[in-house]
Amino acid sequence: MVSTVSQPGLSTAWHVSTQRRQSLLLAAGVVIASLLAAGLALLLQIVSAVVVATWLALFAIAWRPLVGLYVALGLVLLFEAGSADQLMLPGAYFHGGLSGTLGLPVIASPLELLLVLTFLLWLARGIAGQRLDFRTGHLFLPMMLFLGALVMGLVRGVVGGGDLNVALWESRFLFYMVICYVLAANTIRTRRQLAALIGISLITMALFAVEGAYRRLALIDTGILAVAPEFAYGHESTIFLGALLLLVLAQQVFGAPWWQRLVGLIVLPVAVYTLLATERRAAYIAVAIAFVAVALILMVVHRKAFVFIALPIIVAAAVYLPLFWNNTTLVGQPARAVRSLYQPDPRDALSNQYRDLEKINVRATIHAEPLFGVGFGRPFLMVAPLPDISWWPFWRYEPHHNIMWVWLKTGAIGFIFFWLLIGATLARSAHFVKRIRDRDARVFAVLAVSGIVGFMVFCYVDLGLVSGRVTVFLGTLMGTVAVLDQLQQ
């Protein structure tokens, strides 16, 4: 017995090394599968690509439902929902309804089918094997309260005369967050699986950053892609770029596999360039506030990192702002974002004016229906006339003040539940950074803080909650944070 236990193949170091190799292989497999799916969509007829990808997904998810969550997260981080860039074409099919993209009599999108399929296969495997072991997680109560508010908002809107089709389109993305929470809380069981989730997030966001830089340099600046600056990049993409920057920072501070730290350092300047290239004012401010939130955590849990990393960045920002206050080049875009709050240029002034008028209408509607809201499928009041942008079918339903949109649709009760969910997630994430010693758990907790804070700031003035990409990301963060202290070795 002694000789057997002492064999190198059964040592602790051997098992740790094996787990790391398995995590790396699983992360690489998901990324390669995503890239192969994109290549099939571009090189083959889309129907053939969908058939091949569907069968592969069925086998992989039936084998391990966690793969479904990995694939969903990887694809939403890698591909925008709609873009003039042909490299983003797989995203249009993945997020769009099958009736509109392929002409099939199915309203649901492949993303929705993937999430539902993953959930059903996970449930079926658990019931068939008599080992469902359903885990609620520490955030289950606020998530279920918010789910109840969503259902009530949907019912209220339809009963109140709202358009059922619009109501479903408005609310469908918020339900993604709930299902991703349940999947993450019940399929992320071990630290190895958490490490794979971090690796997939890093790689896919890094690939998107590289593609975004290529899009600006090779397509936009050369005139090949002739689109307005507002539509050159998906608005919500900046949330992921900001999360990538702070994920790289967290891995350098708390540790990560050597290849992830190397990839992070290489892709960091590329991600910064792509973020600047988007020219989204809200994105720069969101990243800055998310960085401040992470810096405050570092000041408590890792003062050396705060002094040698966070503090120099804060000082550099203080020097940067006055130097680039009037700079209109790409490098001066963050300074322009701050300046536009006080001295907007003509383009920014028009954007501010539209949002101010929209805010008047949203507040008037909330004042008319403060407790239960107007529900999904019903437009907000038009007290102050808005410029006509009726080319966008939801311009009367989904205001840019996306945080207030939650109150508008679900009322004060739903708004309270929403903030309860956000606040509980941030509190637990910050607590785990301080209390948990595992490096991957701390890195993921920082990713959750940066992602959620950046999302909240961005959605205060822009559309985010009406994007399936954002809600899949949020649901996965929340579900994993809910069980972060229950992961097995």
Q: What would the keywords be for this entry?
A:
72% helix, disordered N terminus, 489 residues, globular, mainly alpha
Task: Write up what this structure looks like.
This protein has helices at 2-5, 12-43, 46-63, 66-78, 89-95, 98-101, 110-128, 140-159, 164-187, 191-220, 237-254, 258-278, 281-301, 303-323, 333-339, 346-368, 402-435, 439-459, 468-482. The chain is an all-alpha fold. It has one domain (136-486). Helix 17 packs antiparallel against helix 18. The longest helix is centred in the last third of the chain and has 34 residues, at 402-435. Residues 1-9 have low confidence and may be disordered.
Set out the fold topology:
Blueprint: H1 2-5, H2 12-43, H3 46-63, H4 66-78, H5 89-95, H6 98-101, H7 110-128, H8 140-159, H9 164-187, H10 191-220, H11 237-254, H12 258-278, H13 281-301, H14 303-323, H15 333-339, H16 346-368, H17 402-435, H18 439-459, H19 468-482
User: pLDDT below 50 for ≥5 consecutive residues: which ranges?
Assistant: 1-9
* Radius of gyration over all CA atoms, rounded: 23 Å
Count of alpha and pi helical runs: 19
Report mean pLDDT, rounded to a whole number.
87
Shape: globular
Helix/strand-derived category reads mainly alpha
SSE string, helices as H and strands as E? HHHHHHHHHHHHHHHHHHH
Largest sheet: none
Domains (count)? 1
Tell me the fraction of residues in β-strands, as a range. under 5%
Distance between the termini: 24 Å
